[in-house]
Write a structure and sequence with these properties.
Radius of gyration of chain A: 26 Å
Strand content of chain B: under 5%
Order of helices and strands of chain B: HHHHHHHHHHHHH
Shape of chain B: globular
Mean pLDDT of chain B: 84
Mean pLDDT of chain A: 88
Oligomer: heterodimer
CATH superfamily of the largest domain in chain A: Periplasmic binding protein-like II
Distance between the termini of chain B: 6 Å
Radius of gyration of chain B: 24 Å
Shape of chain A: globular
Low-confidence stretches of chain A: 1-39
Number of helices of chain B: 13
Number of domains of chain A: 2
CATH architecture of the domain at 96-301 in chain B: Orthogonal Bundle
CATH superfamily of the domain at 96-301 in chain B: MetI-like
Amino acid sequence: MKFSKSVIGGVTLASASALVLVGCSSTGSDDEATNSAAPAGDAIIKTNGSEPENPLIPTMTNETGGGKILDAIFAGLVYYDATGAPHNEVAESIETEDSQTFTVKLKDGWTFTDGTPVQAHNFVDAWNYGANLDNAHANSYFFEPIEGFSWDEGVEEMSGLTVVDDLTFTITLKQPQSDFPLSLGYSAFYPLPDSAFEDMEAFGKAPVGNGPYTLASADDWKHDVQIDLAVNDSYVGERVPQNDGLSIVFYATPDAAYADLLANNVDVIDTIPDSAFETFEADLGDRAVNQPAAIFQSFTIPQDLEHFSGEEGALRRAAISMSIDRQLITDTIFQGTRTPASDFTSPVIDGWSDSIPGSEVLDYNPEKAVELWAEADAISEWDGTFQIGYNADGGHAGWVDPVTDQIKNTLGIDALGNPFATFGDFREQVSNRTIGTAFRTGWQADYPSLFNFLGPIYGTGAGSNDGDYSSTEFDDLLKAGSAEADTAKANEIFQQAQEILFTDLPAIPLWYSNVTGGYAETVDNVQFDWHSVPLFYEITKN
Amino acid sequence: MLMYVVRRLLQAVPVVIGTTFLIYFMVFSMPGDPILAMFGDKTPSPALYDQLAAQYHLDQPFLVQYGLYMKDLFTGNLGTTFSGESVGAVLSRTFPVTLKLASMAIAIEFCVAVVLGLFAGLRKGKFFDNLTLVIGLIMLSVPIFVLCFLAQYFIAIKWGWASPTVGADTSFSNMLLPAIVLAASLFTTSMRLMRGTVIDTRSRDFVRTAYAKGLPGRRVIPVHVLRNSLIPVVTNSAANFGVLMVGATVTEGIFNVPGVGNTLYQAIIRGEGPTVVSFVTVMVLAYVAINILVDLLYAVLDPRIRYA
């Protein structure tokens, strides 16, 4: 009896260890498979990322996790260097006389990794597919300026795109837009090989591109874990990889990525966790990166909010702006990882200026603030509480509370944060216009242009104009700037447009987010580009 | 025995249906619009919004969405994530990882608890007994994320004995650190149970009889005391195993383990109804299965328990 019992006991233990063994063997075989598919050479750059939230199709990807991968495996008409200046990549030339019709000539000799040539129709077909409402691609709004684009019905082929010959096509816009060629480096404008259209779903799992890197096999994308990109030997552009490949590891939290960086387990990361803001520059020394990025943070006061329209509103908006000590908050709360705003765009964008007339309203000036508030009170007595809505899942309470405290202390009014549990909940209230308070807003540029910070947010009826701001004077200047072919002159006009924003203050500018990152002792030549991503192709391993 | 297993399995059916309904309802009534969240601070055009809502059935009322989901579930289709991967594939990728981590953690927890508990029980009231009590209480009361960060910082970063994160390499050695941390946070209860039962068992008649008939301590302790003290510890460790299978979200997040907890957390953040419900359904099944197994283990360890 005793004997048999211990045997059974042994069986239970054995089955428990069998569970362990099963776990081992199944992952063990995975590892073998990936090792064989790994790129040759051992100078593989490891960096942080996140699992793409969409299939890897350029026109569907509107978040950074997938965007980082697409930028590595595709090449568009132009690419941006570290300063955001565009350089022709697949394009030989992009010419226009009226900023409305553009003739694009392609370089000869480009191929996709499946061997097919990159031709004019590869661009036109990809854009038409992405723009078609029936396909519901998230980036379709990029094609909105093109003639024939429609939000009302599915359009198979936009009338504004014409293939002239294998290496030439023309783009006709609905109206002149001088910065349109600047936007062509964004991932939505990448070409697609013919094979993509045979089975788009399969393509999204194993994309075939023409960029400096390539996804050699669908197995190299280990979902939720990492993606391994090999160097594309058939790439003929200027972004020539100085390493043997790229391994983008998907981290659940920035803290995990930072821990790996400290242990030299990952080569370069582009996000420093909040918890390390105080220490990362000491930890990493000159390997720490902390520079302004193309991200603008503000809070928007809806135009129809009580006490905030008309002359009274203008006074109150200016008073609130002047009662915030931005420098103090960026220094103490953000440990210098934000830069106080001096306009509505970003310092990394060509044409940015910190001395636009009217920008004094962003300086901390409590006496003037109290004075303006009293003037507004003379028009109509203030009542109630000033609130700033935000999503509680994004770490915003840390700055909303001090900002509202400063407003409260300077103006002597009640001011509070108005948290929403999730980002989705918050955006729903904002886009349904049911939020009923001021709310936090932010903008990350899609392409390095002043217009991209102004038109989509403050233009009358624009897609992200969540405060319903409308000014004909401002709209006219935007239009004039867009029609101006000379970039310097156009930027001057856009700065004039910002003067109007400084008077009306549809949103109160707060600060520019910095890109915070760092790299390990294992790599050199790390440079972060204008939209906060390291230029991976330049990185060398030592 | 067989009848008992069948009855227990049948009981699981309403449990599974009930949980899927509840979870689906909770995900559905979560505040926030997943489609708007997909676009960040930018607002999608209304036409595009409607297209996407129709694609994920988000424009349908709750009961219709639930019905569509259950219909798919019974035809073996667990739905797709927003990135176009089938939820079945995500499950079969993440569960083995969590299973492995949980098995490792429980194996460590069980061994540590049995050994420490046994010696503490044999030296009741002595220094070793008190020492294990203090260490155990500290491990039990320190929140798991503190243990995780301390282990990660000192063992992995400062001393370089292990990799700070797991990532793609889910080998035994790479997962050892998170497994040890999980075990450290769990072993106290099992250890104290072990100690208590050892003390209790030692005073039993059959132990006295064994000594009386001249058996040496090295035979009485392992054969009579240890074996008969294992039952509550096995139950407790098995229950812990069930909890770990449901995913140690915090630990998996900090050590970047590509397991169930981590993936489920991301799905909840994105508001991916089908992914969340499918994960929870499989978790419920796993939990029910482990509990049946535990009940059967009783019969193995204690012959007085019989299932008709």
